[in-house]
Amino acid sequence: MGSEYAIEAEGLRRVYRTRTGWLRPRREMVEAVRGVDLTVRRGELFGLLGPNGAGKTTTIKMLNTLLIPTSGTARINGFDVVRDTREVRRRIGYVFGGDRGLYDRLSGLDNLRYFAELYGVPARDQKRRIAELLELVGLTGREREPVDGYSRGMRQRLHIARGLLHRPEVLFLDEPSIGVDPVAARELRQTVAGLAASGTTVLLTTHYMAEADELCDRIAVIADGRIQALGTPAELRHRADGRRVVEIEAYGVPDTAVAALRDLPGVRETALEERGALQLLTVQSDAHVDVQGDVLRELAGIRLGRVNSREPTLEDAYVAIVNAS
Ligand SMILES: Nc1ncnc2c1ncn2[C@@H]1O[C@H](COP(=O)(O)OP(=O)(O)OP(=O)(O)O)[C@@H](O)[C@H]1O
């Protein structure tokens, strides 16, 4: 069955039914995904971004047949994820971030041999396929070492190789760079870009905006179970046109102060990010209003570090989209 799209979703919804409380258990419904429409072209590198609990993992799990949608439909290369589960599974790979799913005491090579067997890669193809993949993910020469000596970045690249053993046409990559150091993350990005260049469709979820900006052809921002914005990184960045950003390093900013900043004239968004003891306060304003003086007055008495005024980035556009949802 042919389709020009690798992934198509229409009105995709998922409701979880949970029990809460112990003494008097109550049934609760959580509508995790509330009607997602999406098309991803073949060979496209598509990013799914959103805050915690937005519904990204639930969406991916419906697309890769691990969860049945409550309503709506989805197709992978034309095959329906509910009716044609087997056809879909043959065509997809799933790689999730973190450390699970590898055998630590085995070498990288033996892990791949094991999974090749499990995924039914014909014996005569295994050797060549594994060598190709080790090359693709940059592990050639390290494949005989036990995985428990691998760095996180190496493990993650081995995960990707594992997910590609059966030559999937569509690869789901859920938070691949979580916990990976910046240098290894850069190598990982190169691997992912190489995959897409070789024709594999990639659906990537990430919390790292710079990663999405660099890699993705298009991005969907999902929040509260719905797609809030969809476009190329450049198109999304335009959402922050006409704005200016003041960035302030601070220690111990109370929520009340952040709320007060939001009410200042000209201020459009505020965001507070914890970086250990340090906090990074970001204030977006209309570009023609200089809010820095007012902001600093509002923060009087709070210990501050560097203050910096700059042009908005994709991350700022993302904050604006998520705050508006
Ligand atoms: N098995 C489950 N049972 C009940 N509720 C769930 C279940 N899985 C997820 N949820 C809820 O559904 C919503 C969406 O969760 P989901 O994991 O899809 O979000 P996410 O965007 O992947 O978040 P994160 O970035 O934190 O992984 C959240 O409110 C979450 O608490």
UniProtKB/TrEMBL annotation:
It comes from the Bacteria. Residues 7-249 form the ABC transporter domain. It is found in: Cell membrane. It is a peripheral membrane protein. SUPFAM superfamilies: P-loop containing nucleoside triphosphate hydrolases. One of its GO terms (cellular component) is plasma membrane. Its main location: membrane. It holds the Pfam family DrrA1-3_C. GO terms for molecular function: ATP binding; ATP hydrolysis activity. Keywords: Antibiotic resistance, ATP-binding, Nucleotide-binding, Transport. One of its GO terms (biological process) is response to antibiotic. This is ABC-2 type transport system ATP-binding protein. It comes from Actinoplanes regularis.
